[in-house]
Amino acid sequence: MDYFTIAVSALLMIIGAIAVRICRSKKPLLVLMFLIYGAAVLYLTLLSRVPEINYNLDIVWFRAARAAIDIDGGLIALLKTVIKEGIESGLDRIHLESLVHLDGVILNVLLFIPLGYLLPAMFRGVNRWWKMLLLGLAVSGLIEAAQGYFHLGWVEPDDLMNNTLGAVIGYTIWAVFLKKRITYRF
pLDDT grade, residue 82 (50/70/90)? Predict the structure, then answer.
């Protein structure tokens, strides 16, 4: 995945904002936005990847965070320090090694933000944050399962968390800013 994700997310938000001002009928626009978004997600997560011959399923929690952040003495030592000496002393144990590894985290969150605001705008049943959380988790789970089945990249639990977070952020954007402006329920 690359910065194409950011471009698609930003483009969909801009198109949606412009359309709210211009269009009277929002249904065709929402359908178009959802189709463009779905095609982009399908391409980025499955179609643009080449199957790996020597595929090895390696489930590691917080892979990017572990590569980006170093904690002196480990997590348990950090927690002990925070409990005994306070948060400031605990923060002294944390060292940022590299932001490069966090790119994937950011991109996975951004990838699902449009899902979070398009689905509730289109369907009556997606009217609570926890429903969006479950839908984001389900869609992300399907993508991860397909990637694992077809040997297309790493199957990571972090992707499930980050994608689901993106869907909930998108839902929050819809609920706070867009609910009255772009909602058309099928």
Answer: confident
